[in-house]
Amino acid sequence: xxxxxxxxxxxxxxxxxxxxxxxxxxxxxxxxxxxxxxxxxxxxxxxxxxxxxxxxxxxxxxxxxxxxxxxxxxxxxxxxxxxxxxxxxxxxxxxxxxxxxxxxxxxxxxxxxxxxxxxxxxxxxxxxxxxxxxxxxxxxxxxxxxxxxxxxxxxxxxxxxxxxxxxxxxxxxxxxxxxxxxxxxxxxxxxxxxxxxxxxxxxxxxxxxxxxxxxxxxxxxxxxxxxxxxxxxxxxxxxxxxxxxxxxxxxxxxxxxxxxxxxxxxxxxxxxxxxxxxxxxxxxxxxxxxxxxxxxxxxxxxxxxxxxxxx
Amino acid sequence: xxxxxxxxxxxxxxxxxxxxxxxxxxxxxxxxxxxxxxxxxxxxxxxxxxxxxxxxxxxxxxxxxxxxxxxxxxxxxxxxxxxxxxxxxxxxxxxxxxxxxxxxxxxxxxxxxxxxxxxxxxxxxxxxxxxxxxxxxxxxxxxxxxxxxxxxxxxxxxxxxxxxxxxxxxxxxxxxxxxxxxxxxxxxxxxxxxxxxxxxxxxxxxxxxxxxxxxxxxxxxxxxxxxxxxxxxxxxxxxxxxxxxx
Amino acid sequence: xxxxxxxxxxxxxxxxxxxxxxxxxxxxxxxxxxxxxxxxxxxxxxxxxxxxxxxxxxxxxxxxxxxxxxxxxxxxxxxxxxxxxxxxxxxxxxxxxxxxxxxxxxxxxxxxxxxxxxxxxxxxxxxxxxxxxxxxxxxxxxxxxxxxxxxxxxxxxxxxxxxxxxxxxxxxxxxxxxxxxxxxxxxxxxxxxxxxxxxxxxxxxxxxxxxxxxxxxxxxxxxxxxxxxxxxxxxxxxxxxxxxxxxxxxxxxxxxxxxxxxxxxxxxxxxxxxxxxxxxxxxxxxxxxxxxxxxxxxxxxxxxxxxxxxxxxxxxxxxxxxxxxxxxxxxxxxxxxxxxxxxxxxxxxxxxxxxxxxxxxxxxxxxxxxxxxxxxxxxxxxxxxxxxxxxxxxxxxxxxxxxxxxxxxxxxxxxxxxxxxxxxxxxxxxxxxxxxxxxxxxxxxxxxxxxxxxxxxxxxxxxxxxxxxxxxxxxxxxxxxxxxxxxxxxxxxxxxxxxxxxxxxxxxxxxxxxxxxxxxxxxxxxxxxxxxxxxxxxxxxxxxxxxxxxxxxxxxxxxxxxxxxxxxxxxxxxxxxxxxxxxxxxxxxxxxxxxxxxxxxxxxxxxxxxxxxxxxxxxxxxxxxxxxxxxxxxxxxxx
Lengths: 311, 246, 639
Known about the structure:
- The structure holds three protein chains of three kinds.
- Helices cover 27% and strands 28% of the residues of chain A.
- By secondary structure, chain A is of the alpha/beta class.
- Chain A has two domains: 4-167, HUPs (Rossmann fold, 3-Layer(aba) Sandwich), CATH 3.40.50.620; 192-310, TPP-binding domain (Rossmann fold, 3-Layer(aba) Sandwich), CATH 3.40.50.
- The longest helix of chain A is centred in the first third of the chain and has 15 residues, at 66-80.
- Chain A starts with a strand and ends with a helix.
- By secondary structure, chain B is α/β, with parallel strands linked by helices.
- The radius of gyration of chain B is 21 Å and the shape is globular.
- In chain B, helix 2 crosses helix 5 (187-196) and helix 3 packs across helix 4.
- Chains in contact: A-B, A-C, B-C.
């Protein structure tokens, strides 16, 4: 067989956005039939995966498990020999792609933003070096591609239908990784996913003391404060304020990025904001690629001036 | 308990990255390297996990700046440092093969590495290594605690949701962040290590990385394609007023 | 002391002691502050010095038969007169001090409530000690004075050589001769016996300062103020114990008279943080006294952070040198703190934000976390020579703040424009420059300092130039005072000095002088550390401004709060007002609207402080180059 195999990610009984983005991409390739691998009881929602020609019910527990899900996808590859396996460049996808590629000796291309079918293989473009460089590569078929969330239009993949559902017989898991429980985030004082205006700070802030000034600005703009991952890692702000891959996806009316360089992991979380304004002293910062307005100045100076004006 | 931490240098993104004349690779002339920040977290997590009787071994492939990197790991508190020689630096696949060869000999309980790096186009070192060694692997880990024969790890999903897993050891973990920010290694101590400590050397065969893709082009994304660049804070204020937020 | 680390102070011993004794005799070390207190101290000092002689004479009088016949004539009369007058001086002086410490209780004698105190100190030990010593002096001198009045009563009349005792005389003329004799004996025993009684307490008390202070002054450091001691043991740099300090710094504890002058001038203590250099010395002393027997063994190895100074206090010091400069007995609390920092940093114990900055300095060579290639971004369109590629007369070592900080780069450009207009042949080393490391050394990261210095020296070796110029006093200090020990010997000039040279030589023509008045803030590392006070003042006055001094000027200048790495650290939670804000208010109090600086860090600190203290409308912060630039009528080039 040939075609494209899409690994369908889900969480808490719902298919994740990346699933539909991958389906849309798979269909746009014109590289044969698209089959979608689902896990646990998600095959029961096969009708949501109408853009796939068939659904492969790989079984497994409902809750994601790095070991058994990867083994199941491997089995599906054995059974279907696809030309291309599309996996999300996500927390879950990271556990699955490498073992699948290794098990079948397939080449793996990560951080893809585009994938196109070419003669005898695929042309991929990966966003590397914190989004500062795009790397195009050619890979022979069959191959595994990890696709960055937000690279394709998920809506195009959200097609209802009634694809055939094939059950896959999977080997018993070795049981070396066992799911315990889900830990929901501690409720922060603010739900940034609901904010109309967000002022977000990144590594460029330099010192914890300077957050005070930004907070002042946020208050004047009637905005909530958010941040990128390094700020949380440094312990300067709560996890509940983090925007990005491992944080929250936000869609405010206005998103003001201060000192955020714009790594793909961050952009993933805020690119759907209605208006994005970026302030960064580095004129080459990738954040300016997604921003609607940009300003290359010292963020502290800008904040001070804005606060002064607004007061 | 024996913990291995795999360390790797990556281009420092503070510097401008330039593409060389082939158009397919980074111009290494002005390139500056630094420790992959996620590896720094992995090292920190290992040092936090490692007690008096545990052994934390830092490993890195031979390469420019890697000796200082390993001395720095020793200065931070690693028990031993090992440099792997005989490997041509390549992508994550080749690195995984080299590390797998090095680690196969010793019985490590935990192998920690950064969840990803800015240049791992061929996939992440952790899961690639685990696949070669036949070990369980969990990526995007933000917390590890070790119990009898196993580890309890937190894996981060999106939206701040985490999942807790039990993992049978030995295992490979891709660390996203340590439980506290990575410590600073004083240069005084690094220099002292350079004079008193030794870095072990381990030769591993130049094994290949398996099937690979071929780079055809490398280029910065179009900058400011969509952003309208403003002149000053006053112009910014205008925009904010236009959006009705100021 | 013997537990302390070796430090050679044995050179030129006679000169050292002669100078110290002369200074003590002139009471010079006191002169920087507190004039009123100094007068009374001088009373006691001279009185007490003379009393040494008095006591000897008194003992001789009691034990040498026929002393009265031996000891008479003009010499005895003169002696009596002096003894009589000095008695009153001491009594008046002592009463003043006791009144000050126990009745008026000026706030400067107190510690901020967050300062770590040894239990003995916290229990009021300093006050008790003051009372005992003060009481001893009053009784000792007082009873001798009364005694001489009684002797006059016995002799039957006043003596012109004992004028003040003669005034007391009428009180005793009615006394019975027997009782009189008894009382004279009692006063003699009180005066001299008290000394015997006091002797065991004396070494533990603040009174010992009269012995230790001159020794401490004689044995003081003679290296440049701006050059820190080399690390003794690279395997364990710095120290957290008394045993690890150079021995003169252990001696400091006994020279201390607990006058707290040091914390009065300390920007950290004044702004409410838990640092008191005075408490540090006093705590050391109490610790040694409390563990007198074991100090030799374990006590000297106890962690000073437990009893002498809190870690927060260690990280509050601005390394401004004010405490060392002001100390009348030659103590160096700042050096203790810097040794503590070395040890803490070596063990990785430091504020998180400091680790970030040091990492950037190590990886990028600057404290701004920026690519070092951006170091010369400010030179855009200015056509400045690259001193790595061609020979120049003047190599300008720009420094981190002047290169990267956005509130400084406009000033930096003006310096370039002035030099160009003056026809100076100068160049910069662009991305080849690394932070000079002055403040890196002062946060205790000796290794990183060495690494930065070595990189700079290596590059400077390859450049051809006559002199190095810098606008940054911190950079100036490191290059001038600390690089020589690492093999980098240069003629270094601060731009203020250079500007004076250029003005005097006619290369700079100030054709459009300014008018009005202004005040000037002496940067610690220019003034106190390197003694350059006049050059910036000269520049200001040549530009036509009338200089109005703030109360704290020149060597008594008050630090902006940025030194010693504080510019990289967060404000302490207990900080009540930033030192820079106090300074802005000090400037306003002398009625000026121009606040002049000659240091890039000051530019940042004070333009911020003018804003945060709400005085932005009333005072403008300018660099001295701003004056020269506009007095020369230079049209700037837009960046």
